[in-house]
Amino acid sequence: MTIDDTMDNCLDMLSEQYDILHTFDIIQYKSNLLLLQQELVKLHKDVFFPNERIIFTIQEDVYNNSYGILLKSIQSIVNTIDISNFFIIILTTNTNILSEYSNILTNHSSDTRSFEIIQCSGIYNTYNDASIIEFSPHNTILSNVSDYTLNLLNDDCFCVLPWVHTQTAVSGKVYPCCNSLRSLPIGQHTLHKNIVNSDNLKNIRKNMLQHIENKECTNCYIDEKFKKTSLRMTSNKKFAMQIDNVRTTTADGSFNGKLIKWDLRFNNLCNLKCRTCSSATSTAWHKDATRLGYSDEIFKQPDNIIQQHMQYIDDVEQIYFAGGEPLIMDEHYCILDELVKRERVTVELVYNTNFTQLSYKGKSIFDYWKRFDSVSVGASLDAMGNKAEYWRSGTKWNIIEKNRRLMMDECPNISFSIDATVSLVNALHIVDFHRNWTDRGFITADQFNPKFLITPSMFSIIQAPRILKHKIKAKIQKHLEWLIPLDRVGRSTNGYTAILNAIEDNSAFDYDGFWQKINEVDEIRNENLLDVFPELECLK
User: Fold this and answer.
1) pLDDT, tens digit, for every residue of 247-257?
2) What is the value of pTM for the model shown?
3) Contact at 8 Å (CB) between 173 and 188?
4) How many CB atoms lie within 10 A of CB 217?
5) Which among 345, 359, 452, 347 has a CA at the least distance from the CA of 403?
6) How many Cβ atoms from other residues are within 10 Å of residue 94's Cβ?
7) 162: exposed, middle or buried (C-beta count within 10 Å: 0-12, 13-18, 19+)?
8) Residues 428-453: pLDDT tens digits?
9) C-beta separation of 34 from 144 below 8 A
């Protein structure tokens, strides 16, 4: 129904026609959909009278698909509370509401009846906000959300990961997560059952519950300082349904729970020798590290690492595979085979891969991915063409583009994004790469996730000289004019905005450190930075 009148007048009309139980301005709940779910639980009753209605007003929404996140979340919440669509009215200024809701009703409603949709006159705003995650039975608490959970979600020192997750790095060192400081491991080659309540992890939990920052979490604090959505923030949203269990943590930080998220780095086997990497995380660096006189390290986890984790494979809900390069590791396929054998295809698979090799020992990764309900692939690509081949040595750019075409043909429904690490070397080029792949249909504009490099510090944009920072700022600002209308998820915009915030830092350019690192590798590889990145002449 379309009514040529203001929203206020429409509300008055509806109050005369129906017995209105409550009117929700949905935008007030955009950052806390759990609270909206809680409010609706209070309105639920076994029997509604025919004339009773609940109204949602929508004058703006966040987009990551052909429909708004908040509109979709209303339907998802109504589904979980078991309120019939018949008693729901959507009052909105969205002129495309019928088309958007038709999609939601067909694919996401547990009720075949439609909400009552009323379009009124007024301005409708669409916007991007990467921190808004739609309500889903898979990443939110379904009923009776406690004040305890809501308080922790709003605490900027709290992260759920120390209660549900650990990361095992290629060195065998164990960390609270992949973003925690590498200088502060919480164990080494530690048995799964022993790490859960190690002294270090217990102390991290205690600090979080006392609103004390942990040094291990410094990288997330830096991300948030520069207005970037951090791993802490996304993890709290993703695993919100687990937070109420945190209340069982004892005074010393002990917690009797399950590690439902795994991050496994079996070894440092890799086929690339990226400029920001070393032999610690890539075996391909072995020869160059030896020539440069660096310590050379080849890491492999204990032989029983798989057996240790197989004991808990029925508990896991998400596995993050990285490396080295996970797609050329035997252990990766061993875990996938076991999950398939146990019919645990609902486990969410998340990858960070250099995207150079999609088959291994006669096994196609596509054949595995097709069996699982949820697969997300983040390709570590920071440049295109000869720039990619220089910065991530061993890359063959024609193979990267061939692999993307194959994936689009074989697995078109698998989530794919480019996880681009932005340094002062590729910062001027990164937007050209983003635009090129979008224009050519390899990705949509919002499938690009730029993250600014922190270490090695001499390559960080934070330490770029002022003249380069001015150029980076101008180019990214121009790029955002193109991106923002297309970025319905907001993640890409958020990443570029964090880069703009980071270059406002006044850290000095480490001229000697930068050129020493560049020149020594250029010499042994017979390469020249300025031949490939002539736009960096200003660094001389």
Assistant:
1) 999 999 999 88
2) 0.73
3) yes
4) 25
5) 359
6) 24
7) buried
8) 999 999 999 999 999 999 899 999 99
9) no
